[in-house]
Amino acid sequence: SILLDDNSTFTGEKTALPNANSVRGFDVIDTIKTQVEAARSGVVSCADILAIVARDSVVQLGGPTWTVLLGRRDSATASLSAANNNIPSPASNLSALISSFTAHGLSTKDLVALSGGHTIGQARCTTFRARIYNESNIDTSFATSVKSSCPSAGGDNTLSPLDLATPTTFDNKYYTDLGNRKGLLHSDQQLFSGGSTNSQVTTYSANQNTFFTDFAAAMVKMGNISPLTGTSGQ
Q1: Average pLDDT, rounded, for the chain
Q2: Is residue 119 marked as binding?
Q3: Per the domain annotation, does 69 fall within a domain?
Q4: Is 202 annotated as a binding residue?
């Protein structure tokens, strides 16, 4: 549903606070969909394309593979309020993160594994400014280096990598960063802040294969959250 533009009957999810000026690449999905429709019209949904692209991009960047269950149908509507309320904030503490995932049938183990997706990608200055300037559970040299591209005022849309060492490689360095108090987002560092998830972060930092196995399983589990199938959707 995130692919749907606003229309007269609903306001879509693209302008929701977690998505606006953040989620991009819609044109890539549009191109794939156009080519798939040209080859075989009315067979493959955009929802399945997104699920396949998620897997293939992880593999392309050096990460694990998994079997993508297919047969999803597309939503005909989207919800601005659902996106605003259901996507965890980068300011979330550990209990809020656990509650958010639990509400969708995902365990704390799934939370830690799926957070490892932050081994790639970028975050906007506005999402981590408070952490690098105000928090104490952060490596000082790391905070200083990030401040150079994220001033205390202005520059909200300036990007910094979520994984400073290998931002375009899918690996376990995200967890190593957390162990060294170099998590970029407050919500990231919450996974290693003396709480119940510390041991899992340590395990993933020490064993990339374990992370890969758990991440793949959690992606399949997340992909099975209330898919539209049969005659539902389009």
Answers
A1: 96
A2: yes
A3: no
A4: no
Q: Consult the annotation and say whether 140 binds a ligand.
A: no
Structural domain count, the chain: 1
| Per-residue three-class SS string for 62-124 | CCCCCCCCCCCECCCCCCHHHHHHHCCCCCCCHHHHHHHHHCCCCCHHHHHHHHHHHHCCEEE
Q: Is the pTM of this model over 0.85?
A: yes
| pLDDT at res. 217 | 98
With a pLDDT cut of 90, the percent of the chain lying above it is 97
**CATH number for the domain harbouring residue 193:** 1.10.420.10
Is 166 marked as binding a ligand?
Answer: yes
Q: Is residue 193 part of a domain?
A: yes
**The domain containing residue 115 runs over which residues?**
94-220
Is 48 known to sit in a ligand binding site? no
In this structure, are residues 223 and 68 in contact, taking their beta carbons and an 8 Å threshold?
yes
What pLDDT is stored for residue 21 in this prediction? 84
Residue 73 counted as domain residue: no
pLDDT greater than 90 at residue 222: yes
Is 64 labeled as ligand-binding? no
Nearest to 64 by CA among 220, 182, 222, 188: 220
146's tokens: 């990030």
Would the annotation count 8 as a binding residue?
A: no
Tell me if 49 is assigned to some domain: no
